[in-house]
Amino acid sequence: MLTENGCPKTALSIRDALEALEGRWKLLILFALSSGPRRFRQLSVEVAGITDKVLSKELKAMEMNQLIKRQVFDTFPPTVEYSITEHGASLDKVLEELHYWGLAHRVKIIGK
């Protein structure tokens, strides 16, 4: 795509994707959820460096974009679990390609 002339619809779709995935945390949250449903505290530990306030905000945005599902269980106290939706799982190839690009980038920039 970078070597061809793009059309305005391409730019629009890229902008939509970036808005849904903006920030440094959403893809890391999806990665943490890739091995199964997690509770808030589990996500907070697995996504190192994220604050509870930011995690809460990101989870709400991701739920709104239908990337994750929030499920509340009827227990005392209420149990809440987050899981990836089918729509969120469709980002698997994006994460895989980002992983490979990140490996190549690391080698190019720091030689490791």
What's this entry about, in short?
With 112 residues, the protein is an alpha+beta fold.
Write up this protein.
By secondary structure, this protein is α+β, with helices and mostly antiparallel strands. Helix content is 58%, strand content 12%. The chain has 6 helices and 3 strands. It has helices at 8-21, 26-33, 40-46, 52-64, 86-89, 92-110; strands at residues 38-39, 68-73, 79-84. A 3-stranded antiparallel beta sheet has the order 1-3-2. β2 and β3 form a beta hairpin. The chain is globular. The model has no long low-confidence stretch (mean pLDDT 92).
Distinctive features:
alpha+beta; 112 residues; 58% helix; three-stranded antiparallel beta sheet; single chain
> In order across it, which strands form the biggest sheet?
1-3-2
Which structural class matches the secondary elements?
Answer: alpha+beta
Q: Whole-number radius of gyration?
A: 16 Å
- The H-and-E topology, N to C, reads as HHEHHEEHH
- Residue share in helix: 55-70%
Name the average pLDDT: 92
- What does the main sheet amount to? 3 strands, antiparallel
Distance between the termini: 28 Å
The parts where pLDDT drops under 50 for at least 5 residues are none
Shape: globular
Could you tell me the number of beta strands? 3
Number of helices: 6
Strand percentage lies at: 5-15%
